[in-house]
Amino acid sequence: MKFITEDDLRDLYKKEPFTNYELEAGARLTPGARQFLMDKGINMFETDSGSKGKNSDVKPVEPVVPENKCRNKRLYSRMKSIEALFFLTEEELLSRDVCLAQSVINLSKQFTGIKNAIRNKAPVENLYCNECTGINNSNFSEDLDDCFEISEFHVQLEKGREIVVLHRLRCELNELRDIVPELYERSENESGQCEDIVAKLNQIVNSLSQLICSAFGGKKCQRQN
């Protein structure tokens, strides 16, 4: 079996650019060669090995969507869903606690910035860390788990509804953060972007934990060490 490499295609393209490429019977493209054709927008056709002569059947090969594009689309769609949950949370909190709602709006803007940065491959600034007993600048970007377990008891409190809607949003963000490494696990070249996304999501999650603590216990930190 003959393998066509990316270098083979590059040399061929340098001699004379082409928009269609016919893969001869029995030949196979290496992953790099296939990616080269996709990047150049070149249509690929494969000769049917069962046919002979001038009337050989030439079949178009279905284009393979690059893995990173599938990943980014899945991640972007998930983030749009959580962005909508941010909006619902803001709308509900506005009628209950304006200051709390404004804090969530600020976090929502940061989340939207992360979503857009993934598509545009642009950097996102760190959130400001409002330090407390359990959260500070040194661990703000880490996964710190929930400050305390939310139970039916908290629903009965004066700020029970606020605590629950914030916790629901935090749970969705935690789930998103946990699947990001899975989406990036095969891409060594983008490991830095993966780590940055996770760190920025942790900052939002930890900020939500502080808001939940404030709704439960006022100015006193409720984090369980």
Structure characterization notes:
It contains seven helices and five strands; from the N terminus they run βαββαββααααα. By secondary structure, the chain is mainly α. The chain folds into two domains: 2-60, no CATH class; 67-217. Strands 2-4-5 form a three-stranded mixed β-sheet, with no helix packed on it. It has a two-stranded parallel sheet with strand order 1-3. The longest helix has 28 residues, at 67-94.
Question: What structural keywords apply?
Answer:
225 residues; 2 domains; three-stranded mixed sheet; elongated; mainly alpha
Look at the helices and sheets and give the structural class. mainly alpha
What is the alpha-carbon Rg in Å? 25 Å
Run of helices and strands:
EHEEHEEHHHHH
**Average pLDDT over all residues:** 84
- What's the main sheet like? 3 strands, mixed
Note poorly predicted spans.
51-56
As a percent range, the share of helical residues equals 55-70%
Quantity of strands, as a count: 5
Instruction: Walk across the major sheet and give the strand order.
Output: 2-4-5
**Count of helices?**
7
Number of domains: 2
β-strand percent reads 5-15%
